Amino acid sequence: MRKTVTTVALASAVVLAGGTAAQAITGNFTEDFEHTYVGLAVFFDENGVASHRCSGALLTDTVFLTAGHCVTLDDEGTVATSARVYFEQDVQALGSAYPYDDEYGVTSTQIYSYGYTGLDEIPESKDAGVLLLDAPVQSEYPEITEYASLATAGALDRYKGAHPGNSATTTVTGYGVQESNGSQTKQVAYRERLTAESFIIGLNGTNAGGYNVKLSTSPGGGRGGTCFGDSGGPVLVGDTVTAVNSFVMNGACAGTGFGYRVDQQPVLDWLRGVVGAEWDEIEFSTL
Q1: DSSP labels for the chain?
Q2: For residue range 30-73, what is the model confidence (pLDDT) as tens digits?
């Protein structure tokens, strides 16, 4: 049986080459007013045309961590020229102004990819990206005063061979599609920040290989999963980002989910190089 790989970002009006762009929280989700550092990013090409949207998390007042396939426009690795990030819990409530009016959101013109060029390189897809906001988030959202912490190198290693249980519980949060069928002729996307609990299945296997964390997307036991538009959103243990939502296997919004691990030393070294002095403002956690 051929496996279907789907990225978990969400195209606003287009489908990106190489797969469907976009993912969202499904199953037993709730409205997320807690993780105010999680935002929705809309990406633009060199002509200022909106391409797609994703989720992500602030590590400082200007550093916004997301997925590599979110910051790129194609499988050639072309990086988006600019982005606008929204932190309202219900972005859709902004009305027709979203996502083109500059009345809302904060901009970024410094966008970096870790080297993502497509999912053909799974498990090492290099699916990490970062935006440096043009101004501190408080310039538009003065109420945001807390940020996600970042897992130290190897922090997830303790979950090798993990099984359902409190020790492996994670939180997923993002903006995306709440319902989709396989042909994607039906999608329900509220553009709200939603959250749900999941758990780590393991770190090894063909599609994980130590680079990705495998997550349950089953709605059973009060849990939820991810779908289109959730790409780039954080896989949290507490308030610590351990991975970013990357792709699902065998099913639109129903297959097994994978997050690209950011607790890898090469990823952390890359991040340190692009964020500069902001590195000292990031809080780290060993879990």
Answers
A1: -PPPEEES-B-SS---TTS---B--EES-EE--S-TTEEEEEEE-TTS-EEEEEEEEESSSSEEEE-HHHHBSSTT-PBPSEEEEE--SBGGGGGGGTTT-TTSSEEEEEEEESS---GGGTT-----EEEEESS-GGGT-TT-----EEEPTTGGGGGTT--SSGGGEEEEEEEEEEEE-TT-S-EEEEEEEEEEEEEEEES-STTTTTTEEEE----GGG-EE--BT-TT-EEEETTEEEEEEEEEESSTTTSEEEEEES-SHHHHHHHHHHHGGGGGG--EE--
A2: 889 999 999 999 999 999 999 988 999 999 999 999 999 999 99
